[in-house]
Amino acid sequence: MANAIRALAMDAVEQAKSGHPGLPMGAADIATVLFGQFLRFDPADPAWPDRDRFVLSAGHGSMLIYALLHLLGYEKMTIEEIKRFRQLGSLTPGHPEYGHTPGIETTTGPLGQGLANAVGMAIAERHMAAVFGGDLVDHSTFVLASDGDLMEGISQEAIALAGHLRLNKLIVLFDDNGISIDGPLALADSVDQVKRFEAAGWAASRIDGHDPDAVAAAIEAAKGCDRPSLIACRTIIGFGAPTKAGTEKSHGSPLGAEEIKGARARLGWDLPAFEIPPDVRAAWRRAGERSKGTRQAWLGRLAALAPDQRAELERRNRGDLPKDRIAVAVRAVKEKLAAAPKDIASRIASENAIEALTAAVPEMVGGSADLTGSNNTRPKGAKILSAADYGGRFIHYGVREHGMAAAMNGMALHGGIIPFSGTFLVFSDYCRPAIRLAALMGQRVIHVMTHDSIGLGEDGPTHQPVEHLAALRAIPNLLVFRPCDAVETIECWQLALEARGPSVLALTRQNLPQLRLEADDRNRCAAGAYEIASAPSGAPAPSGAPAQGGAADVSLFATGSEVTIAVEAQKLLGARGVRARVVSVPCFELFRARPAAERRNVIGAAPVRVAIEAAIRQGWDEIIGSDGAFVGMTSFGASAPAKELYGHFGITAEKVAEAALSKLKST
Ligand SMILES: Cc1ncc(C[n+]2csc(CCOP(=O)(O)OP(=O)(O)O)c2C)c(N)n1
Questions:
Q1: Measured between alpha carbons, how far is 440 from 505 in angstroms, rounded to an integer?
Q2: 390-425: buried (b, 16+ CB within 10 Å) or exposed (e) per residue?
Q3: How confident is the model at residue 538 (pLDDT cuts 50, 70, 90)?
Q4: Which helix (H) or strand (E) holds 344?
Q5: 541-579 pLDDT per residue, tens
Q6: CB-hemisphere CA count at 13 Å for 115?
Q7: Cα(346) to centroid of ligand 1, in Å?
Q8: pLDDT at residue 30 tops 70
């Protein structure tokens, strides 16, 4: 059975003229034991919620999972798909892609991410079991990780968190082959992984990964353990290849016809390419059917649930929101703000939003990377999710932004949970690889990122984001919100919950006046940009601008804390007889998605456009044009009180008015 994996991997890589045969050939024995004897899954329903999860963290070995899916009887993974490995539109892309190929639990390839996703999946499993009971939620998370996965820094964050939370249903099979791309691992690494995992609170053992009995015994022991388990499986990369096995030459390129011939002889596999003997195929099919009864029994238990409990579990697993409850919560927050406007920091407004929303949306599970009091992401009274109580809804992730972001992806992928969490916006760089994958996979994770500009003040330039908004806006399929006041903050939160992909909420440390005073059900931020203050009527327009977006001479565009500055500048310009309007732009991506005519209308026809954002200009030209004026940052910030910094860097209403007037003169 293991040789069937090896043969398919060799043949597919050879046909594609690219790919990685070494890992699937080396790890085939481990995978055969895991999928043949332990993993609970049903190819008839790849999304069965109580299936065991398997994460191929070393995504370059993708032919391992594709061969398994094919052999186990996943309907869509035909031999034709295997033959089309790495070709456009096939189900067998270079690295496994979530949502593209049924049976793939997460997109892997950037080493370390899969392992950290698996930690999130294991957290989600424990949490859902605490909420819905072990009868309905009781599965394990298995990972196949390589040397590369374990060398990446993110792996340390992931294993430390897993050990701390005592995620005993997380089992990592380490493909301990001692080879990476450059050659023997000894060139770059001398860590004792068993000791390292033990130090993080794991059970860890070392076995021969080509001995099926040893693999089975180790998995059996891990399943009974009270801690997460590492099984370091000593393997030979490219097992079976006559001259390339055990060397980096089998890692990432086709073996070549001669070598494949030799491997076939060694493995006793004398069939043509892509052919599987009927008895081996039958044995794999039987393995694929092992858990059918288990799934049926689970369906029976689900059917026996009280209707409301069943509906709730199914709703959460589908990822459907309790929209009515959210609408009521949002309306209540807005009504309160309209009745008693609040000049508060948007991080505080976010805390208020979280209080209201988490009460309405039980699947929201919050957290922070050791900045709970600064990010304001812990709702009052929220219990901590810990090894002693997995039912808690707030996670102290520790100072582990990267591991946190990747674990959040795993929680979202697992289903039943909407993870949200916090750190400073400047540390979005520490989360970026995981945020990018959330965007690629379309996973609903919500990153609350506070201290969003020089407005954080005295902590200085190390902590003041300057290029981060632009860098985040550059990620496709990510919504970057920067609300200007408490009302926009609850609206952006609602939009982030409704999104099917990830969101970042960039929020201030400093107080902001409440600019939006109305209370209605309209979510104005949904447009991405909208006129928050129209041009004053009455005064004649000196430039005679047409009456679009209000007869204005100047359109001022801003986000977050700078919308207030734009509104002040509007007044200064008004005093000079210049009619300015202010457009708040809480979300570039949503604005870009609006019809062209609507966008034109919001951008307006005023001859002068000025954008204000305490960040770099990059990205703004799509709104203000290359001839628009920009008031923002062109350098790193500095350490001083916030007010002084705004003056020092020239991000003030006066400077905005000056920029507008000078542009008006030159038009
Ligand atoms: C974050 C990241 N850096 C670099 C790579 C490129 N890369 C792919 S596999 C690999 C290392 C291969 O060694 P190992 O993980 O031991 O896999 P094996 O050789 O056993 O297949 C590298 C550096 C990557 N995929 N992800």
A1: 18
A2: bebbbbbbbebbbbbbbbbbbbbbbbbbbbbbbbbb
A3: low
A4: strand 344-345
A5: 445 444 444 589 999 999 999 999 999 999 999 999 999
A6: 32
A7: 41
A8: yes
Ligand 1: residues whose CB is within 6 Å?
A: 20, 22-23, 58, 60-61, 109-111, 146-148, 152, 175, 177, 179-181, 237, 251
Q: Name the phi and psi angles at 558, rounded to 5.
A: -155, 165
Cβ contact 378:521 at 8 Å: no
Residue 568 is among the residues annotated as catalytic for this protein: no
Relative orientation angle of helices 278-289 and 2-16, to the nearest 10 degrees: 110
Q: Distance between CA 271 and CA 263 in Å, rounded?
A: 12
Ligand 1: atom nearest CA of 112 is 1
Helix (H) or strand (E) holding 630: strand 629-631
Atom of ligand 1 nearest to the CA of 95: 25
CB atoms under 10 Å from CB of 432, counted, come to 17
Query: Tens digits of per-residue pLDDT, 51-92?
Result: 999 999 999 999 999 999 999 999 999 999 999 999 999 999
Q: What is the number of alpha carbons within 13 Å of residue 510 lying toward its C-beta? A: 19
pTM for this predicted structure: 0.97
The atom number, within ligand 1, closest to the CA of 147 reads: 16
* pLDDT tens digits, one per residue of 318-351: 999 999 999 999 999 999 999 999 999 999 999 9
